[in-house]
Specification:
The chain is an all-alpha fold and 127 residues long. It has 6 helices and no strands.
Amino acid sequence: MDITTQLLWLFILPLPIACIAWTVTQEEIFKELKVYCTESYKSSTTIIKKKFFYLLTCEYCFSHYVTLLFLFLTKFKLLLDDWVGYLIAGFALVWIANIYMSLYAFIKQDIKREKTQIGIMDKMSDL
């Protein structure tokens, strides 16, 4: 793969990685899983159980495992054509996926703040 194609993959492949990691760890559709994992994480007595359940509640942690799955499925390598290319690609994909998730969280928070302000202004205008 030439460097231009690799860079294109580097910015497109993190989109589904971020989407999956965010959806599983943050969205309402997986709320029961998150509640169960949070309770299991807090009540676990072994460190392995704690780490396993924590993995499913943290979008950053979970994105590493989603990235591993995508590397396995796509065989994407970055800069080098051996195992080091997988290593570089893995960390680069996680980094960019987490930038995407941070941007999404920031935008989502901003939209929520605007809705709250609009609601307050509506209540004040009714007075």
